[in-house]
Model the fold of this input.
Amino acid sequence: MENKIKPQLRLQEKKDIKEILRQNIVVIIFTVLTVIGVILSDLPFHFMVRELVSRIGRNSFLVLSLIIPILAGVGLNFGIVVGAMAGQLGLIMVTYWGITGIPGILLTVLIATPVAVVLGWQTGVLFNKTKGQEMIAGLIVGYFANGLYQFVFLFLVGTLIPMKPGTPMVKPDGIGLRNTISLGSKHGEGMKYALDYVLQVNVWQLLIAAALALIAFKIIRNRKRGFKTPVASLIPNMILVVVSLVILLVPTFRMLANIKAPVVTWLLIVGLCLFNILIMKTKLGQDFKAIGRSQHIASVAGINVDQTRIIAVILSTVFASWGQIIFLQNIGTMNTYGSHMQVGMFSIAAILIGGASVTKANIWQALVGVILFHSVFIVSPTAGKVLFGDAQIGEFFRSFVVYGVIGVSLGLHAWKAATAKKKEETEE
Amino acid sequence: MDNCLLQMKNIEKDYGGHKVLKGVDLSLKAGEIHCLLGENGAGKSTLMNILFGMEVIHSTGGYSGEILIDGKPVKITSPKEAMKANIGMVHQEFMLIPSFTITENIKLNREVTKHNPVSKVLGERLKTIDTKTMNADARRALDKLEINIEEYAEVAGLPVGHMQFVEIAREIDKTGLEILVFDEPTAVLTESEADNLLATMKKLAAEGIAILFITHRLDEVMEVSDEVTILRDGELVACKKTSDTSVEEIAELMVGRKVELNQKEKSSSEGDRKVLMDLKNLHVNMPGELVKGIDLSIYEGEILGIGGLAGQGKIGIANGVMGMYPTTGEISYNGETAPLNDTLEMLKKDVAFVSEDRRGVGLILDESIALNTVFTALKVKEKFIRNFKLFKMQDGKAITSHAEKMIKDFDIRCTGPFQNAGRLSGGNQQKVCIARALTQEPRILFISEPTRGIDIGAKKLVLDVLVRLNKELGMTIVITSSELAELRTISDRIAIVAEGKVAGILPPDASDAKYGLLMSGISDDPGKEEK
Ligand SMILES: Nc1ncnc2c1ncn2[C@@H]1O[C@H](COP(=O)(O)OP(=O)(O)OP(=O)(O)O)[C@@H](O)[C@H]1O
Ligand SMILES: [Mg+2]
Done:
């Protein structure tokens, strides 16, 4: 044939600045909000960074658990709440038995995982019966499971499930668990910091090591493929190294310089990031993508759509249960009847703020989302106090952000779908 | 009959009480090309969907009858089982994922994978995708079809002809295939592309694959097939050896009456013609159909044909004018400069468009025929709307009666104006597309490949309606078609496009030799009109 077709830039892909701005509008707005908040609130900068570092470790795993269902076309999985419950179930049992440290964590995971698999599988089955309404179904699954959870821990514990008398987590009358359960007040006592304190390393040293490793990896990989690595592509990593070095060496930043990061927790997060990337390079990942784009075409090609969707939901639920364990070992106290309920909303708000949507998400959006969302969280009470003389207003602002961003992005999603349909109709 | 690869016996199917297959038999031998013929809505796709275990069949109550493969009865209830039975199918509507690359589509659910440490423990599905081998396989399949598209290109934005080849490449890439169903693959192909496909089909048949081929082009039937099976209204009317029959007989069997196409009489006023639309240096960036600087005047009240070989840019012109692909240049319409890249504005200016790419797309499949017919007119021109000052309402009665008229004019085979468009056969959906453009009562109509996928009886109807509108309402029509014969029956002038430019303009009665020269891009006096 005469003219060979090269993959061309299509109209919408020729991004001009306006287009780039529009696509990243959420990220930009929240970056601006964060900067304003940081300036307004008179919190010391090192405090904010310290707080942020600990929140990154605490929340990233949960947020990352949302990615696979989004790619598989299931949407925002509000059902991760049930995964969180599985994690808490494990924690409650392990705390009751008084097992601590790494053995405690392992046992918790051992208990939580099968429960999460079963719950995720059931959620997936339900999602398949309510195709197109997965998000609402996910919310309802959360409420329903919460009912069961309360029934078990408020009513069955101490009646059907015998407990040792005098267990601190049980209410004084011997029936039901207390509202809050302490996982220990310091490392080594209970499950508190069981993961985080396995290895604590200076965060800047860690960043330098990671950046250098990444540079080495890039160079080696490119050499294997037979081309030289452009220096420009290494600049972000180098900047990171330089900034970290400055903070470490310049005395003015002494307060910043001694912030420590939980290495094992961070490694787990990196592991989940890698998993999310690698799974998409497998047959299963390709199936996720295919059913995410068109269930009809995928099923005509012989892909078992329903089964694949269930796998996506199970993975997400299991990761959420692990995420909740990481979250609670960091916090140290479990709000028995409340900790899990916020997980869905907060994680979803975070990933959306990172620029993900109902149909698109990647690990960077998840991580950026966690950083931005929690920055706003950290600064909003004090910023509220400075602005309005009342920290409570900052607290309101937090909830406003969570629900607002979810509402707006779901609205945007509906609007985009509607305009895409309309465009198709008028173009013909 | 024990050497039959496939036998379908006494197949019956009804869609909600409406019987669409009434005891059809079909048998197929290895290595033969078997044509399945019939009017739009005769039940061809339905029969093939049954063979391929499509969900539409099983979600609407299944079918009755027996399917035997190699003499053994089989029950095929899903496409997956059909594939296991070594059946492949190119569907009438595209089954491609637009945002996937060509390779990913060709290899959909048949990805080449390699083991990694994890998959050895946890199973097949965690094997790594081997993109390199997949690309090589896809390349091989595309080369077999002599199609020169980069296998790593995204499917979205490809011209329909190429999409069709991607579908075919997907099927021929399958190993162990025994039965291959083609449901109107040539409907979106140009003549040369179609020839290419027919040659491939012969090659495949020679390798022992049995081919079931649905088409409305009877010359193709005569060229490639060994046997023909003809359906009419869901009934089997004949099954013959191709060598024992003729185009005329087949046509008659299909339609149940004689059909012929007659030449349009020359339009009367030749003298001072007003230019309605003038294209100057038009460039359209439509992949595979690049337009590279067209100058063309369209006169008020004429039927202008646009012809040319595949990939030369003829398809791009109408798409560019309507702003479907990025366009530069100048369009003056009715004395004014018309906006570029603005579909809605063009529609508002009474310019209508029937795209060459209309299989399924463009219709709102879960809305009625009536609403689909009036949709553009309703949205763009507020026709069929009763204005009560305070609020506006759709005029249901007028819409229904208009739709009924269109159904009659185009012989749309349906249960009535309120049937959902998605429930129509492919050909009948296309008729609805044309009806919708005409409902706009445009001043100028761009219509591309108007008769593709429409049976020979209805083809005449469509062309007749176009000529009638042109004569009675003075509607200017620009018809793009790869069937030269069709252009010559109705056009006043025919512009031949080669290499993205107008190679020349000929009267319909010019000699074949002249057309041939222009099509191959040889024009001794470019741009000059022959008289
Ligand atoms: N999903 C459906 N629901 C209800 N009726 C349907 C459905 N699909 C097809 N039909 C009806 O079945 C009949 C046969 O349709 P079919 O698609 O098999 O025709 P066809 O021979 O392939 O025609 P064409 O040449 O136009 O593609 C038509 O009358 C059509 O209206
Ligand atoms: Mg059909």
